[in-house]
Amino acid sequence: MTYVHNIRLITCSTHARRTWRGSVYKLIYCDLLVWLMIYASLSIMRRYFLGDNEILIFDKLCLYCNKFSDLIPLPFVLGFYVSLIVNRWWIMWDTLPWPDDIAMFVTAILKGQDERARLMRRTIMRYVNLAGVHTMALFSGSVRRRFPTLDHLVAAGLLEEGEKQIFEEMSGRITKLYWMPLVWATAIVTKARREKLIDADISMKTMIDHLCDFRRKCEKSLHIEVINVPLVYTQVVTIAVYAYFLANLFGRQFTGERDQVDAYLPVFTVFQFLVYMGWMKVAETLINPYGDDDDDFELNWLIDRHLQVYYTDNNDFINFVTV
């Protein structure tokens, strides 16, 4: 579930450092604790359990790891990877279908205040929202839990019993039927033109074009969710980050040959861990924004918002026009 903190960040500059939900601290604290425990175990072993010859070998290993660990181009690898993931994350949000444009065109083009015209407007918007919800249920677990069956769509008022039977008959031949309600909507638009509720053919074409654009949004949302970031790229980044900090378990130990100050905690290495590991965890969080993490898209909120558009835009707002 998305944790909304933008307003609190604006009103309090320290909130970004103190927030736990959706923060980098929550993402990396387990890895950091494990790393510190292993680091402390190696440090204690060197100080209290190794002989002089063994300490000499251990220190040489530490010097070797410290010298060559920086050969891993971690900023370069992480920078490209996170940039790819963030761009994909924004595209996934930008391709989600929104019914607002269709609602405005239905209100403007399909005229009439009688019951027939009102029913047509409401039915078109119901079909548009049905197509959007059905699409989101195909790729989002949270939406699928809310609408696991067609009966739940009927209970929500998005689907009627007769339409449900058509869905069930067609589902045996076609798996993804998100486009079918939009076909029904275009049929209503065509019928409205024949009944002179739409003035001109160009208006009907404009309405159908917007329905087609909505269908393309639904299709693109499905495609971009199916086409994942190459697993090889993710593995390269993960191996690079963990290999770097595995080497630093030895390379950042305080040894008598190299360090004049004998410290127990590698403070700046912890800062490095916070930055690099947090950088990678950000990408892991954003790679699938349709889940239930703190910063994932709140699609159920989006559905509720679209249903409000369905219930208000095409019936209520038109009555407020005074000129």
From TrEMBL:
One of its GO terms (cellular component) is plasma membrane. InterPro entries: Bestrophin, Bestrophin-like. It is a multi-pass membrane protein. It is found in: Cell membrane; Membrane. One of its GO terms (molecular function) is chloride channel activity. The chain crosses the membrane at residues 32-50, 71-91, 226-251, 263-279. It comes from the Eukaryota. Keywords: Cell membrane, Chloride, Chloride channel, Ion channel, Ion transport, Membrane, Transmembrane, Transmembrane helix, Transport. The keyword Secreted does not apply. Forms chloride channels. Belongs to the anion channel-forming bestrophin (TC 1.A.46) family. Calcium-sensitive chloride channel subfamily. This is Bestrophin homolog. The lineage of its organism: Eukaryota, Metazoa, Ecdysozoa, Arthropoda, Crustacea.
